[in-house]
Amino acid sequence: KSKAGRDMIVIYIDTDPSDKQPCYFSEQYKNDSREQKRWGIGGTIRQLVYDSDNKTNRGFKTFIEMVKGSNPGFKVQWDDNFTGCLKGKLVGGVFGKEEYKDSYGNNKFSVKLFNFRTVEDIKNGVEVPKDKLLTPGSNSDDLVPVVDDGELPF
């Protein structure tokens, strides 16, 4: 469940062993020295099951369709083993860069999953999304100066 109590699945993704950065998130997890290890933020996808109209969320449906398309013969088990049936399945992902401001006010980029695709789509090549840039003035802690136009009306 989400913090708001909505149905949600948490998807832990990892890079393929043949990737430039093989098993990136599992290696990160393995090398995590904290007492309570955590899967990397970039490898954790929280996907709502239903949209605000209580219909199947488009992102959830896309994820399921891309998993089915990437694993020949796979059938979703719509029962208590639903999440278990997805464990270890292949799915493709399109990643892109997203700009953010760090706690010191510096603009930086993180790489994030933008959408799911079939593994075949990825092998055939997909267009890399344009960088998602901050809009001017967003994510800013700067104070806006108050213009003094004289006396207050009250």
Question: How does this structure look, described?
Answer:
With 154 residues, the protein is α+β, with helices and mostly antiparallel strands. Strand 3 (92-101) and strand 4 (107-117) form a beta hairpin. Strands 1-2 form a two-stranded antiparallel ribbon. A two-stranded antiparallel sheet has the order 3-4. 20% of the residues lie in helices and 20% in strands. It is globular, with a radius of gyration of 21 Å. It is built from 4 helices and 4 strands; from the N terminus they run E-H-E-H-H-E-E-H. The model has no long low-confidence stretch (mean pLDDT 89). It starts with 7 loop residues before the first strand and ends in a 30-residue tail after the last helix. The chain has one domain. The longest helix is centred in the middle third of the chain and has 13 residues, at 58-70.
Q: Which key features would you list for this structure?
A:
single chain, 154 residues, alpha+beta, two-stranded antiparallel ribbon, 4 strands, 20% strand, globular
Topology:
Blueprint: E1 8-12, H1 24-30, E2 44-48, H2 58-70, H3 82-86, E3 92-101, E4 107-117, H4 119-124
Antiparallel strand pairs: 1-2, 3-4
Shape: globular
Distance N to C terminus:
49 Å
List the strand order in the largest sheet. Answer: 1-2
Query: Stretches where pLDDT falls below 50 for ≥5 residues?
Result: none
**In angstroms, what is the radius of gyration?**
21 Å
Quick gist of this model?
The chain is α+β, with helices and mostly antiparallel strands and 154 residues long. The chain is 20% helix and 20% strand. The chain has one domain (8-124).
